[in-house]
């Protein structure tokens, strides 16, 4: 397993910016890497990507120097293992609502003694043919993997104090749109109550000494978030392309 560059940056209080993409094409990941983005998150929830395709996308990330992450569709240990075995270096997990959910995620991601992930002669471990011994690899992998549950439901907000103390979590990614819908605001997160809730969640996560992440549609939005202490900012591939296309098409007017 390689060093997780973005986890090192985050632990040094440095921001990272990247995208989440539902594309199954490795070329998209490769282009994002050569464009200078910090991370490429494979969307395994809202896409048709298969675990067989994940491995090729991860290879494309490695070629272009971008850190491969993934959002896995469910807190299923076997599914999580397939993504990680392919070389994904961190997970963002949707649907987390309780401390038990959070602990189950840690157990699935981490090798013993931190978790219960099984070890096989897989790609992430250099097929157990690398320079590390098995014990060295297990320890290194546990240190390098980035674990980011999503806060996207009002139940998670209600249980946040218990969730924050679960060992093995690096931080949380707040999902404004889904959180707003769970609070009864179906037209988006622009309501004062939603903004207040998100602000409170951000402060609690920061106070716990953990990483805060959320979405940013533009560089200016990301800059404001970073100034507030949000170090993990992600846009969507479709959103980034639409924004760039809009800027480009101004030349026609």
From TrEMBL:
TM regions (residue ranges): none
Annotated Pfam families: HpcH_HpaI
Domain HpcH/HpaI aldolase/citrate lyase: 21-236
Gene3D superfamilies named among the record's database cross-references: Phosphoenolpyruvate-binding domains
Swiss-Prot/TrEMBL keywords: Lyase, Metal-binding
Matches recorded under InterPro entries: Aldolase/citrate-lyase_domain, HpcH-HpaI_aldolase, Pyrv/PenolPyrv_kinase-like_dom, Pyrv_kinase-like_dom_sf
Cross-referenced PANTHER family: 2-KETO-3-DEOXY-L-RHAMNONATE ALDOLASE, PHOSPHOENOLPYRUVATE CARBOXYLASE FAMILY PROTEIN
Similarity comment: Belongs to the HpcH/HpaI aldolase family.
Protein name: 4-hydroxy-2-oxoheptanedioate aldolase
């Amino acid at each position: 397993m390689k060093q997780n560059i973005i986890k090192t940056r985050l632990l040094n209080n440095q921001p990272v910016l990247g995208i989440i993409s539902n594309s199954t094409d490795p070329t998209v990941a490769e282009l994002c890497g050569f464009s200078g983005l910090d991370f490429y998150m494979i969307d395994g929830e809202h896409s048709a990507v298969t675990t067989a395709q994940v491995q090729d996308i991860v290879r494309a990330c490695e070629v272009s120097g971008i850190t491969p992450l993934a959002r896995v569709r469910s807190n299923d240990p076997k599914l999580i293992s397939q993504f990680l075995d392919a070389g994904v270096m961190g997970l963002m997990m949707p649907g987390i609502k309780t401390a038990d959910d959070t602990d189950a995620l840690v157990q699935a991601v981490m090798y013993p003694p931190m978790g219960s992930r099984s070890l096989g002669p897989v790609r992430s471990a250099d097929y157990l043919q690398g320079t590390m011994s098995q014990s060295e690899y297990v320890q290194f992998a546990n240190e390098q993997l980035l674990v980011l549950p999503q806060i996207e439901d009002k139940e998670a907000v209600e249980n946040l104090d218990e969730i924050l103390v679960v060992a093995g979590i690096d931080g949380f990614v707040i999902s404004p749109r889904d959180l707003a819908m769970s609070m009864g605001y179906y037209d988006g997160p622009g309501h004062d109550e939603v903004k207040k809730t998100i602000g409170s969640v951000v402060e609690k996560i920061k106070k716990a000494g953990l990483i805060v992440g959320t979405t940013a549609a533009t560089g200016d939005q990301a800059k404001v978030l970073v100034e507030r202490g949000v170090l993990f900012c992600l846009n969507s591939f479709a959103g980034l392309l639409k924004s760039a296309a809009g800027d480009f098409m101004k030349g026609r007017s």
